[in-house]
Amino acid sequence: MPATVHPLAPLENYATYGARFMDLAIWEPYARQICQRHQLCPFDPLRAGLAGTYPTFIVAERWVIKFFGQLFGGAESFRAEQQANHFIAASSQIPAPKLLASGSLFEPSEGWHWPYLIFEFVPGISIGQIYDQIDWDDKLALARQLGEITRHLHQIPLEDTPFPGGQGWETYLKFLEGQRLICVPNHQKWSSLPGNLIAQIEDYLLPPEAIVDLSRPPSLIHADITRDHILGEITAGRWQTRALIDFGDAMMGDIFYELAALHLDVFQRDRHLLRTFLDSYGLSKPQNNGFSHKALSVALLHQFDVFSGIRNWMDEIPDSLEALAIQLWG
């Protein structure tokens, strides 16, 4: 007889993962098993959440189960999200779904164990789904609110319980050095930036020690604050933020790494919104201190393609990275 194929086997290779990872038919029995394990009742209805990197399902409009696969760094993302939520739970200033439970579907001896996290469900939609409907005053209010939320996140004391990867700057500096080694290949693969700008990257990038302020301790950063990760709703015609979600990329770092996705995605490159955010955060943007050079260097080093769509942003892309930095960051 042919060997039985495990139901989750299609999620163990890149070729089939994308088409199957949010398949309710695959996940329904496992979600039910977890709900029974953690005494979550009622179970129905079960529906898929917003597709991201990992399988995520909403149970009875009350709970969210997020599974972490072996692909796409699932083990590291599980640890990062679990630990980040441990820290932010102590702060009433950071709106985020409460982490209720965690576990694994299988024993490690059975192959990939599929760790999972269970969160409270926060009703709403991502601001990315309706961003074009948000008026200017609400975008300014959002920039101010995100400045406050990010400041509180970055001020969380971590001395007693180090975040995965350790305390101090060493881990973050090694991360940036690693990103520098693959920076040009990444951008060649992504092809968002034109070739003439990619050819300038190696000479343009600042060394990591010139990017971070080593006189200050590193902060816990979300590292991927995009419009998809901001949940809320329209109430009486005004946007109301309900939660910041998805801390699976959280790490120790600094404000410049946080700014890459914030400015290029959430603020849509609007420098007035950036200034509003920085004022609320408590970080002024001094002139002639290399702010734009630092910001673009870190954006180029980002693990994700934060320049996706740049050919739609700009009628004419500058011929140099120096000019691009000024145009984007001022």
Number of strands: 10
Q: Total helix count?
A: 13
**What form results from the Cα inertia axes?**
globular
Question: Could you name the ranges where pLDDT drops below 50 across 5 or more consecutive residues?
Answer: none
End-to-end separation: 67 Å
SSE string, helix = H, strand = E? HHEEEHEEEHHHHHEEEEHHHHH
- By CATH, the topology of the largest domain is Aminoglycoside 3'-phosphotransferase, Chain: A, domain 2
Outline of the structure:
This protein is an alpha+beta fold. It is about 40% helix and about 15% strand. The strands form 3 sheets. A 5-stranded antiparallel sheet has the order 1-2-3-5-4, sandwiched between helices.
Indicate the topology.
Elements: H1 14-20, H2 24-37, E1 46-48, E2 56-59, E3 63-67, H3 74-88, E4 99-104, E5 115-120, E6 125-126, H4 136-154, H5 170-190, H6 195-198, H7 201-204, H8 208-211, E7 219-221, E8 230-235, E9 238-244, E10 251-253, H9 255-266, H10 271-281, H11 291-301, H12 310-313, H13 321-329
Antiparallel strand pairs: 1-2, 2-3, 3-5, 4-5, 6-8, 7-10, 8-9
Helix pairs in contact: 4-10, 9-11, 11-13
Feature tags:
14% strand, Phosphorylase Kinase, domain 1, 10 strands, 13 helices, Aminoglycoside 3'-phosphotransferase, Chain: A, domain 2, 2 domains, alpha+beta, 330 residues
